[in-house]
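Researcher: Structure for this, please.
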Amino acid sequence: MADRQCHHCKQWIAQGETHDCWTTTEAALTQDLSEDLRDAWERLRETAVSFGDQRIYASGTAIMFSRQVCYFFVRPKRNFLELCVILGRALKAPQVRRVERPSTSKVRHIIHITHRDQVEAPVTDWLQEAYELPDVLPSKSRIKRTSTKPKPRLTKKQRKR
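Model: Predicted structure, token format:
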């Protein structure tokens, strides 16, 4: 059997050689950042860590920050850090490049960070709000579901009884 090319990373893999291009680390995703972006990344990470207990991990091309669920993530790009903050409301601010609604209760905000000085209020306030969002949103287990089916109509015989 001949060598094969990975369809994800396009690397050539010899026969019998193991290959895992999906496993990544924070260091691997941030190693090629410029000095300004590295400073901005470090400030973002320090800010998030100051909020409290959470899990920080690399996944594919992003670095995720989560409590029970992911509340924001960072995609390091060549010229900027793509910050995706998940809130319960839509923001209208010049820092927000794009707003997406992945569900009925959550709104994803895309922000481009190019310098350490951009990681301050209001961005840090939005990160704090995102961190606290699971405490504010009602969880599925706390919501009492009501039947959405309409009541069946009574027939003439049933109405006479």
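Researcher: Any notable elements?
Model: The first helix runs from residue 26 to 30. Helices lie at 26-30, 35-49, 123-136, 156-160.
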